[in-house]
Every structure is written in structure tokens, then in C-alpha cells.
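Reopening this one. Same input as before:
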Amino acid sequence: MNKGVLLALAISAGACFSVQPPINAALGRSVGVLESALISFVIGALVLAAAAWAAGTGSLAAVRHVPLWQLVGGFIGAYFVTVALFCAARIGMTALMVAIVAGQLAGALLLDHFGLLGLQARPIGPAQTAAALLIVAAVWLVQSRG
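Same output, byte for byte:
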């Protein structure tokens, strides 16, 4: 796939991502916060199970041979969904999304700079530093009411 298609997919995922916390928060008001996160993950797991079964390109049995750190993604996903649905109604979606982007950018800069988790090292330059500062400014602006 070319870069434009990949960026369009990422943007569409981001747009979908912005509606997930309020949907889960509404479900959370009906069934409870942790229960809402669980329901979200069960439905997601069922969808992914069907997709994995239909594609049939990998091996679930191979999970027995992976390093434990590669399984942390499930914990991170559960943490993320739970925190997002808890925070959505309390700080607002704009503040939540900007704060999430700030955290994602900070993490991505560190991963790239040090070449962590199997990524190629890409030192932080002036453009990346400026982007990080702009995101910090965005967090501050979204939270200011003046």
C-alpha cells in the first residue's frame, strides 16, 4: 500500500477512535466502568477471532513461544480503554483526545529516538521537538477556559 492510503487509513482509525470513549462511557453508565471495558474487549475479541479465522494466515498456537513482553499489548489496550471511558465525560472529548495524542507523541518520540521494541533508531530532530512543543501547547490551550 502506498503512503497516502496508509495515512488515510490511520486518519479514519483516528476518527473512529474519537467516538469510542463516549460510546464506552455511555455503556459504562448503564453497566459500570469495568464492565463496559470488558464488554468492549469481548466484542472486539469476537470480531478479531472471526477475522483471524477467515484470513487464516497466522498461528495462535505460536503464542506459546513469544517473549512475555510481546503480550503486554493486551494489558495496555485494557488500560487505555478503561482510562478513556472513565475520563471522557469528566474532562471532555477534546481534552481527552489532545492528551492522548500528547502521550502518544511522547512515547513515539522515545521509541524512535532510542530504537526501542525493534524499531530503527531515528534521532529526535528540531521538527519533532517543535511538534512535541505544539502538542503540549495544544493540551494547555484546550484546558484553558479564558
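So the earlier flakiness isn't reproducible anymore. For the record, Helices lie at 3-31, 33-55, 72-91, 93-114, 126-143.
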